[in-house]
Amino acid sequence: MPNVRRTLVRAGADLPIDADEGATLLEVIRKELGVRSASLGCRDGSCGACRVLVDGELVPSCRVRWNDVKDRATLETYEDLERDAAATRATEAFASERPTRCKLCVGALGVTAVALARAGESGDAEAIEGVLTNATCMCTGRGSWRRALKG
Ligand code: FES
Ligand code: FES
């Protein structure tokens, strides 16, 4: 498939990228930007391991075609957010409960915690259930994410 150019805005910088129009956003950000915090898990949109924030919204990047990415969309990954207090709180709580697991989901958990905090919904049980739709820790299940997000 042909390449298409999109510019992502990350940490205030414009990042023009040419990539196969049929590639996924996950593939592009891992290959072109070196993102490692968003991971390929289920491939079908159900695990959330590939979550990033696009224009502030939680997005399963494995399900977004590069061609469908809006030009000049703002991208935030866990690498950009790991010093955020909400991300730190959630990922440290998760790590203290499950220190020996694969950690594939940690970046997604972190960006999810930031999204909740920005919406003023940290610790809100209903909001947490909402963000747990199509997201889970594949090693330990939703319970560990739920507890980490409750803080
Ligand atoms: S890998 Fe994207 S939702 Fe599971
Ligand atoms: S997917 Fe392995 S620790 Fe969550």
Structure description:
This protein is of the alpha+beta class and 151 residues long. The protein folds into 2 domains: 3-80, Ubiquitin-like (UB roll); 81-150. Helix content is 37%, strand content 19%. It contains 6 helices and 5 strands. A 5-stranded mixed β-sheet has the order 2-1-5-3-4, with helices on both faces. Helix 3 crosses helix 6 and helix 5 packs antiparallel against helix 6 (142-150). The longest helix has 13 residues, at 85-97. The model has no long low-confidence stretch (mean pLDDT 96). It binds FE2/S2 (inorganic) cluster (2 copies). The site of one FE2/S2 (inorganic) cluster has 9 residues, from loops.
User: Superfamily at the CATH H level of the largest domain?
Assistant: Beta-grasp domain
Strand adjacency order, main sheet: 2-1-5-3-4
Low-confidence spans: pLDDT under 50, at least 5 residues?
none
Biggest beta sheet attributes = 5 strands, mixed
Radius of gyration: 15 Å
What is the CATH T-level topology of the largest domain?
Ubiquitin-like (UB roll)
In total, the number of strands is 5
Q: Note the beta-strand portion.
A: 15-25%
CATH class of the largest domain: Alpha Beta
Q: What is the global morphology?
A: globular
Mean pLDDT: 96
Number of domains: 2
Helical segment tally? 6
Bound molecules: FE2/S2 (inorganic) cluster
Quickly give the CATH architecture of the largest domain: Roll
Structural class: alpha+beta
Order of helices and strands: EEHEEEHHHHH
